[in-house]
Design goal:
Low-confidence stretches of chain A: none
Strand order of the largest sheet of chain B: 11-10-9-12-8-1-6-7-13
Oligomer: heterodimer
Largest interface: A-B, 98 and 79 residues
Distance between the termini of chain A: 50 Å
Number of strands of chain B: 15
Strand order of the largest sheet of chain A: 7-11-6-1-4-5-12
CATH class of chain B: Alpha Beta
Shape of chain B: globular
Largest sheet of chain A: 7 strands, parallel
CATH topology of chain B: Rossmann fold
Helix content of chain A: 25-40%
Shape of chain A: elongated
Strand content of chain B: 25-35%
Strand content of chain A: 25-35%
Low-confidence stretches of chain B: none
CATH architecture of chain B: 3-Layer(aba) Sandwich
Number of strands of chain A: 18
Bound molecules: flavin-adenine dinucleotide, adenosine monophosphate
Number of domains of chain B: 1
Largest sheet of chain B: 9 strands, mixed
Order of helices and strands of chain A: EEEHEHEHEHEEEEEEEEHEHEHEEH
């Protein structure tokens, strides 16, 4: 447990979240300067497989706590354990993937560790012995360089899809260090009762392709062509706030300042004008396509490709075209 | 029930920002209540209407933040406190949470603290969990529904909006809860409310009132510093408008481009 660079592996129901491994790629950029290997931190119940994967994706050591009290993420047991293990080993930096759990965990434990947290890194460099984090602020209108200069560890989450998914080296292994849970079930007052998952929902988080609909889809049934295109492309369905507020699609699909911030390879905006608050959620997408009737819609200032036309003609034609091309 | 809601004042979501020497300005765009915090004060008011008690709004910030607190009074909060001190300038999320914790302790018996999911200037979303830890209370973030509260048994049941769906959980109060869109529809202030709020005197607490050591907060106490802020580099993309005689022709051309881009 002497490595300077640690990575916390986010998991849900005993499986690493798909983007969790990106933090290992980010960690590798730091070991070049800081030296040593990478220690992965795995908390949960029944997480043996994650331990193995952590080695294959680049960890040299895994510190694991496999305990029934850690089955569901709860901030108290995770926070207490994290503060203890990290507080004793004193790494220089702990990275994790940006998401609800890791952000909460780092924030909570940072109070015990008397150190700082920086979230949503899109870039990491070294400056005067500290990690300089580049991250978007003000809804992505500005960038900020942040540092945690005087206290350790530096707790940093990296934005989903900001770093590549690492290549697996099948069969690679390393040192496993087992640690005990800090709190037992009797100590815990927060109980997870249930998960309610929306039927057939492809999560926007980490999606490589997103097809979004706005007020232009003109009703709940207007999302049908959007869904079909997303399906053919293997993507997720997004929406503007106008479409969500109208009740055409649940809030889980909202992209923007008061919705999800996404960064897919391809974002297809259909019937969305491109208000700044919507841009806040999608402007860092690699390639943006806009389909809009109004040639002056601000979304065209952001898009790489645009179609001025009726989405109800263009979107189904695209679906048919990709069915042919992708052999579906 | 005594409920406290933490409100931050931020530049309008549509403001055109300017940065000079890493200092952000927003011209004559208005300052507003952080949009997520509207859900926090609305939930405080709904709970107060249901259980009785008091809703108190607090904000840490410069004198201008009084305007945000007046909005809270205008919609129906009973009391508001401004936490303002030159020594607080440069506070990071941790120093902010520490200061808010001191203010909440000074307010006395509090059952529930409601915050927004995140502030739209710094976009960190760290304050709730830090505040909860400083207070030693339950932390429940990203709450989209408060299912029930039992003030006698001191329990709360909520639905949390997670990446994988809604997590239903029960916990003890006092609790620090951050809320998201979808939990309620924030009300507008009434004309009477605005008039009353305009006349209200909002007490101001400095760090001495809160017993805070000046080296613990502000620039000196912050763990995290942000020496540089600059505009997002503009991507050199000029839109290529795809044209064609029919939707099919347009679709074929667009498909060619997207396949060449290797995004499909
Ligand atoms: C505090 C705050 C937070 C906000 N947060 C968000 C957020 O998180 N996400 C978000 O999206 N918005 C957000 N908004 C709202 C935002 O300002 C816009 O109102 C919203 O994004 C508009 O949605 P829209 O583009 O779907 O609708 P509109 O602006 O009405 O645009 C509809 C577009 O569809 C086009 N159109 C119509 N019919 C067709 C057709 N048949 N074919 C092709 N094109 C067609 C029109 O030309 C038009 O450009 C927020 C606003 C505020 C004040
Ligand atoms: N200066 C502040 N004064 C009062 N509340 C704040 C302040 N900063 C943050 N908050 C609260 O904490 C939430 C999360 O903010 P942040 O962690 O900065 O993204 C906000 O939505 C507010 O409810």
């Amino acid at each position: 447990m002497t490595n300077k660079v640690w990575v916390y592996i986010d998991q849900f129901k005993s499986e690493a979240t798909p983007s969790a491994w990106e933090a290992l790629t980010a960690a590798k950029t730091l070991t070049k300067d800081l030296g040593g290997g990478i220690t992965a931190l795995v908390f949960g119940s029944n997480v043996g497989e994650i331990v193995q994967q952590a080695f294959e994706f680049g960890a040299d050591e895994v510190v694991v706590c496999d305990d029934i009290s850690l089955k569901d993420f709860r901030i108290e047991p995770y926070g207490a354990l994290f503060a203890k293990v990290v507080g004793e080993a004193k790494p220089e930096v702990v990275l994790g993937i940006a998401g609800t759990r890791t952000r909460d965990l780092f924030a909570y434990a940072s109070v015990d560790l008397s150190t700082g947290v920086i979230v949503d890194a899109t870039g990491l460099t070294m400056k005067d012995g500290s990690v300089q984090v580049t991250r978007p602020v003000y809804a992505g209108k500005l960038l900020c360089n942040e540092l945690c200069p005087n206290t350790r560890p530096q707790l940093i989450t990296v934005r989903v899809r900001a770093f590549a998914h690492p290549e697996a080296q099948i069969g690679k292994s390393g040192t496993v260090t087992k640690v005990d849970a800090k709190l037992s079930e009797e100590d815990l007052t927060t109980k997870v009762l249930d998960y309610v998952v929306e039927e057939g929902q492809v999560s926007l988080d980490g999606a490589a392709i997103i097809v979004s609909g706005g007020r232009g889809v003109n009703g709940p049934e207007g999302f049908e062509p959007i869904r079909q295109l997303a399906k053919v492309l293997g993507g997720a369905v997004g929406a503007s706030r106008a479409a969500v507020d109208a009740g055409w699609i649940p809030y889980a699909h909202q992209v923007g300042q008061t919705g999800k911030v996404v960064s897919p390879d391809l974002y297809i905006a259909c019937g969305i004008s491109g208000a700044v608050q919507h841009q806040a959620g999608m402007r860092t997408s690699k390639v943006i396509v806009a389909i809009n009737k109004d040639k002056d819609a601000p979304i065209f200032n952001l898009a790489k490709y645009g179609v001025v036309g009726d989405l109800f003609e263009i979107v189904p034609a695209l679906t048919e075209e990709f069915k042919k091309r992708l052999g579906k | 029930m005594n409920i406290v809601t933490c409100i931050k004042q931020v530049p309008d979501t549509a403001a055109k920002l300017q940065v000079v020497d890493s200092h952000v300005t927003w011209g004559d765009s208005p300052l507003i209540v952080n949009p997520w915090d509207e859900y926090a004060y609305e939930e405080a008011l709904l709970l107060k209407e249901k259980f009785g008690g008091k809703a108190t709004a607090i904000s840490m910030g410069p004198e201008t933040a009084n305007e945000a607190l007046k909005t809270c009074l205008a919609v129906g909060c009973d009391e508001a406190y401004l936490i303002s001190d030159a020594a607080l300038k440069g506070s990071d999320a941790s120093a902010t949470a520490f200061t808010l914790a001191k203010a909440i302790q000074k307010l006395g018996e509090v059952d529930l603290v409601l915050l927004g999911k995140q502030a739209i200037d710094g976009d960190t979303g760290l304050t709730a969990a830090m505040l909860g830890r400083y207070l030693g209370w339950t932390v429940l973030t990203q709450v989209i529904k408060i299912v029930e509260i039992d003030p006698k048994a001191k329990t709360i049941k909520v639905e949390r909006f997670m990446e994988e769906g809604r997590q239903v959980c029960s916990a003890k109060i006092p609790a620090v809860v951050s809320v998201i869109k979808g939990i309620n529809e924030p009300r507008y202030p009434s004309f009477m409310g605005i008039r009353k709020a305009a006349k209200a005197a909002i007490p101001k607490w400095g760090i001495a009132d809160l017993g805070i050591d000046p080296t613990r907060v502000g620039k000196t106490g912050a763990f995290v510093v942000w020496p540089e802020i600059y505009p997002m580099p503009v991507k050199e993309t000029k839109v290529e408008i795809i044209e064609g005689a029919s939707p099919q022709e347009i679709a074929a051309k667009l498909a060619d481009r997207l396949i060449a881009e290797k995004v499909i």
